[in-house]
Amino acid sequence: MGTTTTPTPRPDWSLTPRGTVSATAQGALALAALASIGDLTGLNPIWGGAATAAGALGTVVVSAHHDHGPASLLYRLGCWLGAGAWWTYTLATTPWNLNTFAALGIGALTAGLLAPLGRHTPRAPRRPGTALVLRHTSRIGAEWEARIQRVCRLRVTVTDVTMWATRTGYDVHLDLPGAGSTLAQISGAADALATDARLPEGCGVEVGPGMHRAAVVLRVSTVNRLEEEVPFPPLTTSASITDPVEIGEYRNGDVVQVPMRQASALVIGQTGSGKTILLNVLTSGVARCRDALVWHIDLNGGSLSQMWLAPWLDGRTDRPAVDWAASTPAEALDMALAALRIAKDRKTSARKLKIAADTTLMPVSPDLPEIVIFLDEGAEAVSPGDRSVRELREALEEIQRIGRDSAVRIVASSLRSTSDVLPPMIKKMSHVRIAMYVQDQSELGLMYEHNRAVNVADLPGPGCGFVQIGQATPRPFKGQYMLPSTVISAAVQIAAVRPELDERAQRFAGRAYADRYERMHAAFTDHDTDDAEGYERAIPAAPVAPARHLTVLPGGGGAEAWADPFDLARHRPAAPAPTSAAAWPEPRRPILRAEQIHPVNPAPQTRPVPPIMARALAAFAAADAERLHSAELADALGLSQTELADALRPYGIAPLEQPFKRSGTRARGYALEDFRVIAGGHTPGSQARVTPGHSAL
Ligand SMILES: Nc1ncnc2c1ncn2[C@@H]1O[C@H](COP(=O)(O)OP(=O)(O)OP(=O)(O)O)[C@@H](O)[C@H]1O
Fold this sequence. Notes:
Blueprint: H1 20-41, H2 45-65, H3 70-92, H4 98-113, H5 135-152, E1 157-163, E2 169-175, H6 183-187, H7 190-196, E3 205-209, E4 215-221, E5 230-231, E6 245-250, E7 255-258, E8 265-268, H8 275-287, E9 292-298, H9 305-313, E10 324-326, H10 329-349, H11 351-357, E11 370-376, H12 390-402, E12 408-414, H13 424-428, E13 432-436, H14 441-447, E14 464-469, E15 475-481, H15 484-497, H16 503-509, H17 511-514, H18 516-526, H19 532-538, E16 551-552, H20 565-570, E17 592-593, H21 611-623, E18 627-629, H22 630-636, H23 641-648, E19 660-662, E20 665-667, E21 669-671, H24 672-678
Parallel strand pairs: 5-15, 8-12, 8-13, 9-10, 9-11, 11-12
Antiparallel strand pairs: 1-2, 2-4, 3-4, 6-7, 6-15, 13-14, 14-15, 16-17, 18-21, 19-20
Protein name: S-DNA-T family DNA segregation ATPase FtsK/SpoIIIE
Binding site for ATP: 269-276
Keywords: ATP-binding, Membrane, Nucleotide-binding, Transmembrane, Transmembrane helix
């Protein structure tokens, strides 16, 4: 058994204080020694004052550096000032009397008793980003912290609140508390949070990821912007399919950008939800690209393709804007099989191109364009229950499976997303999923796998929808509003500049593709309007830059020859000119501005003023105003703003582009002049009367 030896502790002769008492005693003795030396050497008291000031300043700087708390700083400052004052006093007088040493003793005792205050106590940790929260938004941040605690039982930290540029809402940035909390817990409670915040009807809370896994962004809308119209912007034709297609706006004013180079898309929506208008916007977004072609499968009586083909059917363009449109299941099958052959061929034939471009994705170009097949309400036509269309369905499904790299993509639309009408594969393979206005929550549930962030209450009406891109949370948006006249002028513009299908693909597409124009002409001319004269009037003679000038065509005749409201609607301003003026057709009739025309004598007979015009004119008269805000006019006519816009659209009357101020409020609205013109009144200073083909815009 061995013995253990305990090492003898070595004596510690250092002057380092062992505790509060020794530190206090050492301090007092050192001070007394300094006072004695000062007295013996006759040191000037000014050095005492200087040493005190330097010590106090050093204490402040060092405390700030070590982030000492306020109590610690005050204690250290107090010690320096007390000791310094005592020493300076002894230099000015003498330390050798009882009172002076009594003061030193009391000072040392006080410093010893208060010593715990001097310990290093760092400030309370600052909540990340709290300093960034501006004063006027910090109240909002505090409210949301309390709300999330109440509704989700999570103690989150709001790090920032930013107002939207549109002033119609704000973003709340927050950090989750950890301890197993996830973004899903908050997004699942989005509806409850919106209710708790008492947001107005149609407004809501969108929950999205932040900069890291524990960061969350709440997009809170406080004004229902989805009720406002998003006009279709002027069309440009130099885009590439590798750029996303813009289809509308989110609540915060951000543009909805849909990637179309690699993604297939699915659009659902009940009748009247705005599907066709959205498909028109998507068609223009793809067809305007220098490296993409649109093919339509339109088994729905031509409701999608008709207007895109109209300028070509009418002989105004040499080729249609839409490269191929199928109106029968047989031709749709020919199209799908042709696209499939092209996709398969490109898989191997594009290999050299990929190596040359050193890219893993087939590079598209005007010489090798992407093909996007639009299937208008055709999902039903390829529904799983229908055996007769099995081949078409299988071909489309295979394109979705293999056509990403080969740049053959599908945009399918359907009334519903249930598996009895929509092949599950088409839904599964659609990277972009858009659900236009529906009344039934279960429809949205089926489309977005019952994502709890998706609520039918967030869609105030037609033209609104949810869009989901990839795995992102579906977000409400308002689609761009594309009018028939805009489609037709876009078709003219696109037909002039779009690419042709590459020769190799044409060979793989076969005879069905080579003969397509004849069949399209026959099929879609059949659907054309009998009123050729009226239809010609609807086609813009030449594109004009959007401007709210009164444009009147010369003419005469009786009131019976007035333009149909639908024609008037189609004479709205068109998009800007295509790349070359030579591409434009000759105008049928010269277009003159109001100030350029001579008065026309009023016709003896006049058509009765439409009731909506009469009531609107009365509302302007009652308000004694030349302009009225949309809300005011809608109220006066007992309509909602959307109903008012819908009622006036056939007459070509739309709100003024620029908002204006009335009673201190700035908003968009209508001009009396527009109603006067349509109602057959006289524009100020003019005797011009609207005659057939006249446009009020
Ligand atoms: N983006 C929009 N902005 C404003 N209103 C819109 C918009 N989209 C659609 N609407 C309104 O909804 C109506 C129906 O639109 P659209 O014809 O596109 O619907 P749909 O779903 O194709 O209907 P259907 O299946 O019956 O043809 C339009 O006449 C218009 O009043």
